[in-house]
């Protein structure tokens, strides 16, 4: 896998564990203006911890609107309130914000003033999950790296809405009201560095098209997808993690070698209607096929390389599959011997 892609993927993982950075060492408490800001400009009911002077905690306060945010703030937490609008006056002086969490509020698209988000030139992370949005807020700041819009009412992705977000690595749109017709032409244009796209729990019947070429993680669980186009993954040659659990995929909807791609490491097809194990590539490490309609598996037919060969220069120890889930199918133990002969690195098999 491309080194730059790996680095971006590692950054994505690390952000799940990041808390507010300790920037106290860069804060000059001797400056009377800063001291005044820290102790007198803290919005009523919010928390302005001295150990994290650039963070403002206004979460879980029952707020109905965003208070006036002090200019020193970089990290703003406003989740789990009753805020229904975003107005420029609240952020008039707060131009250095890097992180905003506005999840679990009542914000609607029509109540977001047009340029209120665009002004945040340093904004990297924007969380607007579980609100009342029916569209992607726009315009957005060009430097944004993560945009989380899950659990809203978004039904359309207009053309060009992401066109300037070249730094975006994560786009989360799961649990909205997206259909096959929701994606306008070139809806994802401009997302040159996107690593993770999550459109799970929508109403898609087809695989989304026009995906960014650098996509590594694609989550499509809990849709109504019935088939995958033959050459679909040619447009995403770096795809490594694919989740298609809880769809309507049957054997007829899966071309013979559609998953036979060297970049794929983790493939999840649980809770579909498959009767046969699809052909996979020797690089695949984890495969979820539980809760389908599989009765038996012919290992010699689906083995990535000829099991009769004693040595394959690409797979000196055999295919790399280490984890296989088969429970909830129509087959019973034991595991077929030819499966174990082919996938010699298998460490966990659930049946």
UniProtKB/TrEMBL annotation:
Pfam families in the record: LRR_8, LRRNT
Primary residence: secreted
UniProt keyword terms in alphabetical order: Disulfide bond, Extracellular matrix, Glycoprotein, Leucine-rich repeat, Proteoglycan, Repeat, Secreted, Signal
Stretches assigned to the LRRNT domain: 41-75
Signal peptide: 1-24
Gene3D superfamilies: Ribonuclease Inhibitor (3.80.10.10)
One annotated Gene Ontology cellular component of this protein: extracellular space
Similarity annotation: Belongs to the small leucine-rich proteoglycan (SLRP) family. SLRP class II subfamily.
Name of the protein in its database record: Keratocan
Species, as recorded: Leptobrachium leishanense (Leishan spiny toad)
